[in-house]
Amino acid sequence: MGYPNRYIDEQPNESLKGTKRTSFFQDLSSQNISSGFISSTLVMTGPALIILQAAATGNFSNQQTINWMFAVYFFGGLFGIVMPLVFRIPITGAHSISGVAFLATVTAHFSYPQLIGGYVMSGLLILLVGLSGLFTKIIKWVPKEVIAAMLGGLVTNYVVQIVDGVKALPIVGGAALLSFLICTKISKRIPAVMVAVVVAFISLFLTEDLQMSSKGIAFFLPSLQMPEFTWMGMVTLGLPLAMLILSNDVAPGIGALESSDFNPPIRKIVSFSGVFSIIASFFGGQSANIAGMMTAICSSEEAGMSSKRYMAAVVSGILTLLFGVFAWKIVPFIQTLPQAFVSMLAGFALIGVLLSSLQLGFTGNKYRLSALFAFLIALSHVSFFHISAPVWGLVVGAIIARTVEA
Q1: Cα–Cα distance measured from residue 317 to residue 255, given in angstroms and rounded to the nearest whole number
Q2: CA angle 316, 348, 173 (to 5 degrees)
Q3: Rounded (5°) CA angle 258-259-265
């Protein structure tokens, strides 16, 4: 069965074999630069604010917080530069926003070295899954509806903060919400979250008397962090974090590439997501992996010719990496913003995650009950035997799915 000539000509994998490639700079275009900029903006706004919230919950020091920001953005950006250049397809790198949302619920229950140990174990699990080819089997053991519903319950608490933010800052919140809705209605090209963030910042500076602190944080080189490994950290931190990354970042990212007619090297993508996550963990970050939503942006038709879309991922990776390098300057600025404002922007950043999670978790007919229990348990923030609510949600949901709804 043949393919159209245009399809064959634009397949990046075909061009790797025996064909002279143009230079990277010649493959740059206004379309892939624009897509790369939009992609990086998404990960540099709301997710960064969620990291600061999670760090505050865990009582992190300034240095620990900056280490976290540096690790996930520098190594996530590096992943997004190396992978597309090697495979010539738009494999876009970042860190796991769902992983950060999960960590915000557990950072207070572990010491800092134990958190680092959990990150390392999560990266090792992802690497083993990639090397062994067990990715599909693991995802199938816990129904995707249950994982999606658990994530929905996890992020609902963040999205609800939009309401509190609008109440505390009515002009700023109202302008951000209105711009979000208008952009959603009229434009599929520009992400509504990015527009809402920009409008929120402009409104804040115009309407609020901000006392911007002149005290910065002195520059320091990011340092290696020593992990502490525990069985509890493995069960309640490493395993669920790995599952969240695999199901909510790796799987959507690979799906986005396949839906755009690319042929992604699945095992290599999963394995390198594990390798980069392990490296990031020793510097204080939870992951550095393929990013689902960002990969969808960089692999779409709006990113230009199929054979040149990989440069959108490279552009996104460079901007993301630079964001991590200057984390020591960025973190103090974000910390001076009103807490209601930060919480509101974090909520906007997770609206898309919540919508997709609820849609995947509850549109089917087979696992509605197990998905509902996973959602409610994750939403409750209950904790038994030092095991967090999201883990219990996955366990209970999977048991119900494999017994009652089997």
Answers
A1: 20
A2: 125
A3: 10
Could you tell me the end-to-end alpha-carbon distance of the chain, in angstroms, rounded to an integer?
A: 39
Contact residues for 137 (Cβ-Cβ < 8 A; gap 6+): none
Q: How far apart are CA 84 and CA 91, in angstroms?
A: 5
Query: Tens digits of per-residue pLDDT, 256-282?
Result: 787 778 888 988 999 999 999 999 999
pLDDT tens readout for residues 85-121? 999 999 999 998 888 888 888 888 899 999 999 999 9
3-state secondary structure of 98: helix
Q: Is-contact 91 296, C-beta < 8 A?
A: no
Instruction: Give the Cα separation of 118 and 106 in Å (integer).
Output: 11
Q: Can you tell me the distance from the alpha carbon of 322 to that of 70, in angstroms, rounded to the nearest whole number?
A: 9
C-alpha to C-alpha distance for 118 and 110, rounded to whole angstroms: 10
Are the beta carbons of 118 and 307 closer than 8 angstroms? no
d(CA 97, CA 100): 5
Which tokens sit at 162? 């939009």
Q: Report the 3 state secondary structure along the chain.
A: CCCCHHHHHHCCCHHHCCCCCCCCHHHCCHHHHHHHHHHHHHHHCHHHHHHHHHHHHCCCCHHHHHHHHHHHHHHHHHHHHHHHHHHCCCCCEECCHHHHHHHCCCHHHCCHHHHHHHHHHHHHHHHHHHHHCCHHHHHHHCCHHHHHHHHHHHHHHHHCHHHHHHHHCHHHHHHHHHHHHHHHHHCCCCCHHHHHHHHHHHHHHHHCCCCCCCCCCCCCCCCCCCCCCCHHHHHHHHHHHHHHHHHHHHHHHHHHHHHCCCCCCHHHHHHHHHHHHHHHHCCCCCCCEECHHHHHHHCCHHHCCHHHCHHHHHHHHHHHHHHHHCHHHHHHHHHCCCHHHHHHHHHHHCHHHHHHHHHHHHCCCCCHHHHHHHHHHHHHCCCECCECHHHHHHHHHHHHHHCCCC
pLDDT in tens, 291-309: 887 888 788 777 878 888 9
| Distance of alpha carbon 175 from alpha carbon 149, whole angstroms | 30
Beta strands 93-94 and 289-290, pairing class: antiparallel
pTM above 0.90? no
Structure tokens at 28: 């740059």
